[in-house]
Amino acid sequence: MDKITDALCKEMWKAFKALGKEALTMNHYDLAEATPVSDTETWKQWLRLPAVSKYIAEEFSAIQDSELRKLIMNISDSSSVGKAQLINSLSKLLDKSEGVDRSGPTYIYTYVPLAEEEKNADNVEELENDPFITPLSR
Question: What is the pTM of this model?
Answer without folding.
Answer: 0.56
